[in-house]
Known about the structure:
The structure holds two protein chains of two kinds.
Chain A: H1 2-21, H2 29-35, E1 39-43, E2 51-55, E3 62-66, H3 73-89, E4 99-103, H4 111-124, H5 127-136, H6 144-152, H7 156-165
Parallel strand pairs in A: 1-3
Antiparallel strand pairs in A: 2-3, 2-4
Helix pairs in contact in A: 1-4, 3-4, 6-7
Chain B: H1 6-18, H2 23-30, H3 34-41, H4 48-57, H5 63-70, H6 81-90, H7 97-120
Helix pairs in contact in B: 1-3, 1-5, 2-3, 6-7
Amino acid sequence: xxxxxxxxxxxxxxxxxxxxxxxxxxxxxxxxxxxxxxxxxxxxxxxxxxxxxxxxxxxxxxxxxxxxxxxxxxxxxxxxxxxxxxxxxxxxxxxxxxxxxxxxxxxxxxxxxxxxxxxxxxxxxxxxxxxxxxxxxxxxxxxxxxxxxxxxxxxxxxxxxxxxxxxxxxxxxxxx
Amino acid sequence: xxxxxxxxxxxxxxxxxxxxxxxxxxxxxxxxxxxxxxxxxxxxxxxxxxxxxxxxxxxxxxxxxxxxxxxxxxxxxxxxxxxxxxxxxxxxxxxxxxxxxxxxxxxxxxxxxxxxxxxxx
Lengths: 176, 121
């Protein structure tokens, strides 16, 4: 129940962001963060760090993204969306309390981390739009993944995973 | 039998030495006996109440640092932001020391920046 609850909440947050901020793909994540009062900083960290979320009393919440050349733009976008998820899911924790999340490629996939990933996926690639583009590009199934990934500002790998979880086959076999 | 922490003893010993303070002088200021101060400097872990008391008398003795060395959990409300981040990073095995230092420096920087912004407003 808890797992469903966390991930459902994450999806709901993403849905609300799309409906209230009238977003368009690729989502401008700085707009989303800005509306939530989060300051976003880019900084070069060691390779092991993707990003971090810090909330301290008396200061605006801060997300720092590792802008090292080793982190491609699409990866940074996913990290930023994931950290925004930490902010939203952390709102149930009293504002007087400090919150820190240090995300690395090996961060343990706890319930919260999975929910933040769910938020990032739903924010960057909302189901309705994924299905819409998928069907719109049915004439070009060979390049569909690349085109859709570009439209959403995500990696092809992330797009393939999204298609897979929505039960949308990558390539449709042509009838002979 | 009381617990012993070498790290705790070192903190107490170094504090007394740094301030050229005898056990007796420390006892007079805190109401905790000189013998007990000696035991603490040898590493005897006191109760949480004693830690609270000595850190409230001597500002130089950070309560959470003492608690950590003594094996007690930190008091969240007592921790300075930078120290809180240091504590949070201590158990992290995925981030190398260099990365931890980068994060701590980043937090120091933003803390300074926002305190300047606040004082300007």
